[in-house]
Write a structure and sequence with these properties.
2 domains, 16 strands, single chain, about 40% helix, Aspartate Aminotransferase, domain 1, binds 4'-deoxy-4'-aminopyridoxal-5'-phosphate
Length: about 400
């Protein structure tokens, strides 16, 4: 299958060779790396993507969860074109950002106020800074397998090389371990930073009871609970926090909320966020040139009203749940050595094996075979369903999966 992949994709391979001279490994976004070389996608329409060698795929990866609208949208194109035509880079506030902030704050129970940033990474960094300065404490509790951005990623069993603060690494979904940690050093913990579903960590969904314990511990010990909803905000109108019924002190978002543009935002309780009020003595600084850039604000505003409505998010969640159930059924019926985990429209297929190497090979083969059938998912088995995916695409995908998983 790997040889077939090489033979079918000479232009993608050549593109990587060219890129290696100017970007390390030809890469500027680590998650896109794929052995022996990643596909280079040239254009797209709806949920169809086309690579430089001319193959078409139905996109079940959805920009690693950042894409929810599919790849082309007249509504977003018009919003960006209008903002562009009206002038950008205005050294000022614009009406777009107020309207956009109002729409976001109204949907998250945990957000009294928010600030815009340029990525989920930055949003998390700012939330952590706010929590440290609000509590006067230094440690951030995080979980094994967490991914909060390039600056703070905890692969399973590996330690981060770049966490810009003291952290306390705890096992995910282990309420007892969190309680023990707080009993021992609760007075030093500024915040708990947690994904309601670990995304890059393999779509591991938090137990409601675990999140409830984190809520109680942080409340009791005067620490701040931060939900990283950069991925999970799509689970409902009010994000995963509304589904779990656990309301954090701060929430970070990103990805699809920017309407296809670079985006991040962090928000939370007024008493925490108002420390950024620049009219206050000793206000926290947060002055990104592009924080409120007009193109993102316009695209985000259009997206939130058009695509991120309560009805559409609920429908997408259900589509994802149905797809997960159908995939689970395939693995059960055929006995194919795979598992699926996830929540709503974001899920991960995990290959099993008697050794990690065997599982990895099986995982890669699954992807190559799905590609041969015209379905695009991540190397690591990640699937994120977009609103552009229709029933017929799902049926085709399931047929292909049933065939290739068994071989
Ligand atoms: N948090 C989570 C849960 C994420 O999945 C990601 C991105 N994959 C980030 C934070 C970082 O966001 P960005 O890539 O926009 O910096």
């Amino acid at each position: 299958a790997i040889e077939g992949y090489r033979n079918r994709n000479p232009k993608s391979a050549a593109m990587l060779d060219r890129a290696r001279a100017v970007m390390p490994g030809g890469n500027t976004r680590t998650s896109l790396w794929s052995d022996p070389f990643p596909l280079c996608i040239e254009s797209a329409e709806g949920c169809r993507i086309r690579d430089v060698d001319g193959h078409e795929y139905i996109d079940f990866l959805g920009e690693f969860t950042a894409g929810i609208f599919g790849h082309t949208s007249p509504v977003l194109a018009e919003a960006v074109a209008q903002a562009h035509a009206d002038g950008f880079g205005l050294s000022s506030h614009t009406p777009y950002e107020v309207a956009f902030a109002e729409r976001i704050v109204e949907r998250f129970p945990s957000m009294d106020r928010l600030r815009f940033a340029n990525s989920g990474t930055e949003a998390n960094m700012m939330a952590v800074m706010a929590a440290k300065l609000t509590t006067g404490r230094g440690k951030i509790a995080v979980f094994d397998g967490a991914y909060h951005g390039g600056f703070l990623s905890f692969g399973h069993g590996s330690s981060p090389v770049n966490a810009p603060f003291d952290y306390l690494l705890l096992p995910f979904n282990d309420a007892a371990a969190a309680s023990t940690a707080f009993a021992a050093e609760g007075s030093e913990i500024a915040a708990v930073l947690v994904e309601p579903m670990q995304g890059a960590g393999g779509c591991r969904v938090a137990d409601r009871a675990f999140l409830e314990v984190l809520r109680n511990l942080t409340q009791t010990h005067g620490a701040i609970l931060i939900f990283d909803e950069v991925q999970t905000a799509r689970m409902s109108y009010g994000g995963a926090q509304s589904i779990f019924g656990v309301i954090p002190d701060m929430t970070t978002i990103g990805k699809f909320f920017g309407g296809g543009m670079a985006f991040g935002a962090f928000g939370g309780r007024a008493d925490i966020m108002d420390r950024f009020d620049p009219a206050r003595p000793g206000a926290l600084p947060h002055a990104g040139t592009f924080n409120n850039n007009r193109l993102t604000m316009a695209a985000g505003l259009a997206a939130i009203d058009t695509y991120l409505t309560a009805d559409k998010l609920t429908a997408l969640y259900q589509t994802g749940e149905d797809l997960q159930a159908a995939i689970k059924d395939i693995f059960k019926r055929t006995g194919a050595p795979f598992k699926i985990t996830g929540m709503g429209s974001i899920m991960n297929i995990h290959a099993e094996g008697t050794t990690p190497e065997e599982a990895l090979t099986r995982q890669k083969l699954l992807r190559f075979r799905l590609l041969e059938d015209g379905y695009f998912i991540a190397d690591r088995g990640l699937i994120a369903v977009s609103q552009a995916i229709e029933e017929k695409h799902i049926e085709g995908f399931l047929q292909s999966l049933e065939k290739v998983a068994a071989t």
